[in-house]
Write a structure and sequence with these properties.
This protein has 3 domains: 54 residues, no CATH class; 388 residues, no CATH class; 182 residues, no CATH class. Helix content is 58%, strand content 11%. The protein has 18 helices and 12 strands. The protein has a 6-stranded mixed β-barrel.
Length: 645
């Protein structure tokens, strides 16, 4: 059993003597930079068998929750930036169309291309500076508001003072987005000919492909690599995004072609809406890509958010084991299990445990491993807890090799967790030699297991086949769930089985649940910011054709069309765009969620039909409502006012 005592009283007990097994630990806290420097020094000077862990290597339950929440927040930030980039591109296109005549007139008065470009870039930089200042102020206010709102969930009363790093990241991101998505249209605006003053049909010559798409593509790739630095996932993510945009473009072209054929087969209002799609061919394709990308991003984050929250809830069910029992002697194992059942406790697997040390890999002593080979956790030098079992644990999944059958019992076979296998660089079929109670034992690696460590179930790095270690002296361990108020039962257990060590992990469970609650709150908060960015894309896409719609509405009203007919035509146009965008977005979000959930967040993916309904119906309603709200003032404006203007 464990004993807690004052360190000053330890020498008088004479517990530490030659042959005693003693381990020491230390905790260090301080400023981030000083701690990082100290960690680097310790990493370079720590001895064999010494372990160094920081806050990111806490218990598996907390570590996994924080890492997955951090990955989701990074992805949400990337999606928000990409959505804002699309909105910037749409707004820049509208800006160029409105200023074509102005730039042409300036050129007739002697303005050069460089002058007009400089003026546009200066306006862009002024806008970026204003956005940076306002964004920084809003971010600071949002932090204060969130702190006051969730003060009850936090263990601290105030957060550290904001540093300049987020401000610098925001500034660089804003400049990169503007340079990649707003600068190419401005370059095209500077090339508009002065002859446009006399010939309104003249526009700026198109840019070469590198100038038109190169900056935007470069910015997107840099942003993706910043969030997904893994080369394989980066390639998958980029390829999927390219395929999705191409699919949206092809779908837009098909929709425009189909709209031209359906113009004479629908009612007046729908005819007007379908005609708009066919008449503004390029604009319709661009809007479909913008709407589809925005809806896909929101659906993707929604699916990942639900999967993340669902995994956290499955990780910590109400009846999760809250007590661990170790050092159970073999002679009382069955009696101990019966006692737990009589007390109404829900028990998990009862597993044997012995101590052993790895001494050789394929006949080569572990001391001969090259420096750094053997992992930061000291797998090659420290003693390990070993077990044996005939059944694969519910939290274990075979990723290489095979699990043993009854015919393999008694054979020297061992199964390794991925952490142990990766640290030592061994593979299925390699031979490992262990020192168990002074006796060597060589075993062949039969399988590699992926272990889910955050379930509070007994699990081991090293598992042997039954019939190999039964002769070694060892004990058993298990875990169980006791309902609140079980102190009396636990006291009886301690008196009846004095050699068994009892660990109450209710406090740890409460801490993990608190961390998960905070992570879920952060996920929901950032998702709302991303939703706002998606609405910005919608408004920017609609506003990009506002001027054309004003004249179209005036002409239709002049020719006798009622206001209701014009409104119905606008709703038909945007509902068609929204439903098709939502359908393709649902396809892209489903495929993307599968890969990101299984390969990036390392969660189980469960496909659902709800995102498809949300994509098609929600896309049609959202885009139609946004289109109507953005063009309402255009439709309500008297035709005479528009034609005179």
């Amino acid at each position: 059993p464990n004993l807690l005592m004052n360190a000053a009283d330890l020498p008088s007990t004479h517990l530490i003597q030659p042959g005693s097994r003693v381990s020491y630990g230390g905790l260090f806290a301080g400023e981030r930079t000083r701690i990082d420097d100290f960690k680097a020094w310790l990493t370079a000077h720590k001895g064999p068998g010494e372990r160094l862990r920081d806050i990111t290597e806490a218990s598996p339950q907390i570590r996994n929750a924080v890492q997955r929440a951090g990955r989701f927040l990074s992805l949400a930030s990337l999606v928000s930036v990409l959505l804002c980039a699309i909105a910037v591109a749409m707004a820049a296109r509208a800006y160029v169309r409105r200023h074509l005549d102005t730039v042409a007139l300036l050129k007739t008065l002697g303005a050069t291309r460089s002058f007009t470009l400089t003026v546009s870039v200066l306006q862009l930089l002024a806008l970026a500076l204003a956005a940076l200042v306002s964004g920084a102020a809003l971010g600071f206010l949002a932090q204060e508001w969130l702190l006051r709102t969730i003060r009850g969930l936090l263990a601290v009363t105030e957060l550290p003072a904001p540093s300049l790093t987020p401000l610098a990241i925001g500034f660089v991101t804003a400049i990169a987005v503007l340079a990649g998505f707003a600068l190419p249209p401005l370059l095209q605006l500077a090339r508009v000919p002065a002859l446009r003053v006399l010939r309104r049909d003249l526009g700026p010559p198109p840019l070469v492909v590198v100038l038109a798409f190169g900056p935007a593509v470069s910015v997107v790739l840099l942003l993706i690599y910043w969030v997904v630095p893994d080369a394989r996932l980066f390639g998958y993510f980029t390829a999927a995004l390219v395929v999705f945009v191409l699919a949206l473009t092809l779908a837009g072209l098909a929709l425009v072609a189909l709209a031209g054929r359906l113009r004479g087969r629908v009612g007046v209002a729908w005819r007007f809406g379908v005609a708009n799609l066919s008449r503004r061919r390029a604009e319709s394709v661009v809007q479909l890509v913008a709407f589809g990308t925005g809806i896909m991003a929101l659906l993707l984050l929604s699916i990942l958010r639900d999967d993340l929250n669902g995994d956290w809830q499955r990780t910590l069910p109400p009846n999760l084991p809250n007590y661990f029992f170790i050092n159970i002697p073999p002679a009382v194992r069955e009696d101990f299990v019966r006692f737990l059942a009589a007390q109404g406790a829900r028990t998990t697997r009862v597993l044997p445990m012995i101590r052993g040390r790895l001494t050789a890999i394929n006949g080569r002593p572990v001391e001969a491993l090259r420096p750094g080979h053997g992992g930061e956790e000291g797998f090659a030098t420290r003693e390990q807890n070993l077990t044996w079992t005939s059944e694969l644990g519910p939290d274990n999944r075979i990723i290489a090799g095979r699990w043993w059958t009854a015919e393999d019992f008694g054979k020297p076979l061992v199964s390794l967790a991925t952490e142990f296998q990766e640290a030592l660089g061994v593979e299925v079929g390699d031979r490992l030699t262990f020192d168990i109670a002074g006796e060597p034992l060589e075993a062949r690696v039969a399988s590699i297991r992926k272990v889910k460590w955050d379930t509070f179930q007994p699990n081991f790095f090293i598992v042997f086949a039954p019939g190999v270690l039964e002769g070694a002296a060892g004990t058993y361990l298990t875990s169980a769930y006791f309902a609140p108020g079980a102190a009396r039962s636990l006291a009886q257990l301690a008196r009846r089985f004095p050699s068994v060590s009892i660990f109450d992990i209710d406090e740890l469970l409460a801490q993990v649940r608190s961390v998960l609650d905070k992570a879920a709150l952060a996920v929901e908060s950032v998702f709302m910011f991303t939703l706002f960015a998606g609405l910005t894309v919608l408004l920017a896409a609609v506003q990009s054709s506002r001027d054309e719609r004003r004249y179209e509405s005036a002409m239709l009203r002049t020719l006798g069309a009622s206001r209701g007919t014009v409104v119905q035509g606008v709703l038909a146009e945007f509902a068609t765009l929204g439903s098709l965008s939502g359908l393709l977005a649902a396809v892209g979000a489903t495929v993307g969620a599968y890969f990101l959930t299984t390969h990036w967040l390392e969660l189980r993916y469960a496909p659902e039909l709800m995102p498809w309904a949300e994509g098609v119906v929600g896309g049609a309603l959202l885009v139609a409502a946004g289109g109507w709200l953005a063009t309402r003032s255009v439709v309500n404006q008297p035709p005479l006012t528009t034609l005179r203007g």
